[in-house]
Design a protein that fits this description.
28% of the residues lie in helices and 25% in strands. It is α/β, with parallel strands linked by helices. It starts with 10 loop residues before the first strand and ends in a 19-residue tail after the last helix. The C terminus is likely disordered.
Length: 270
């Protein structure tokens, strides 16, 4: 709420369902009646085991999957499935950072060229390429290199810079740390949180790693078999989980020396 006036959620999802046809008259409901909001500037974690529907929901939010039921509203604009026509300009302010940093960048174009493409989408005055790289702790000299010249963690930082270059209102991280070394995971997650805070974007961070999500998220949504079975402030869900499934997820977090310690966040160097 600003000056007594309630703010419109950045993202408003109501009764969202996504169903796939399997043939022989069979169907698979990957997302089943999910409802939630992402408020302006919020960091929301979406957690659950592999196959629970997290990535399908993320793709639906971006218009990459058709809805079989419900609706998604982004800043007052209904999200519809992407087709061959140009995407409505307001929906360009949803940007996703994908899981595989080796597949998400064009190997034949320099970092500068790919960032410049995204800068042209920015609705206002876009940061320079050097400023974008600085935001993700990469030197300005990285602009004239190609993706194959970077490590996995560095490529993911380039992907974050490319998403931020558009001036998004909503960043979505679709398991953006899953393919990285354990030593990098918490660092990249924290970087995404920091960049979102600095740019005023909301962040929907999708992961099966509850310890990392606890490190960065204001709120948590727990997904199981296509449904959101629990949601609330991160510390409340962590310390007082209401659902047996959430308790099982928390119990599965590795424990070091008998203590449920959070991942150590070290300087970015990979």
């Amino acid at each position: 709420m600003v000056d007594g006036v309630a703010q419109r959620p950045t993202l408003h999802a109501r009764d969202v369902s996504v169903t796939y046809k399997l043939g022989m008259g069979k169907r698979l409901t990957a997302v089943d009646g999910v409802s939630f909001d992402v408020e302006p500037g919020a960091v929301v974690g979406l957690v659950g085991e592999s196959g629970c529907g997290k990535s399908t929901l993320a793709r639906a939010i971006c218009g990459l999957e058709p809805l079989s039921g419900g609706a998604i509203d982004f800043g007052g604009e209904p999200v519809t499935r992407l087709g061959f026509a140009r995407r409505p300009r307001p929906l360009l302010r949803i940007q996703m950072v994908f899981q595989n940093p080796y597949a998400s960048l064009n190997p034949r174009r320099t970092v500068r060229a790919q960032l410049e493409d995204s800068r042209r989408i920015h609705p206002g005055s876009a940061p320079t390429v050097a400023q974008l790289l600085d935001q993700v702790d990469l030197p300005a000299s990285a602009a004239d290199r190609y993706p194959h010249e970077f490590s996995g963690g560095q490529r993911q930082r380039v992907a974050i810079a490319r998403a931020v270059a558009t001036g998004p209102d909503l960043l979505i991280g679709d398991e953006p740390i899953a393919s990285l070394d354990a030593s990098l995971q918490a660092r990249i997650a924290t970087l995404m949180q920091t960049v979102a805070r600095e740019t005023g974007s909301s962040l929907l961070f999708i992961s099966h790693d509850l310890a990392v999500v606890r490190l960065i998220a204001d709120r948590v949504l727990v997904m199981y078999q296509g449904k959101v079975v629990e949601s609330g402030p991160t510390e409340q869900v962590w310390n007082h989980p209401a659902q047996p499934y959430t308790r099982r997820l928390l119990a599965a977090i590795p424990v070091a020396d008998g203590l449920g310690r959070l991942p150590e966040v070290l300087p970015l160097d990979g």
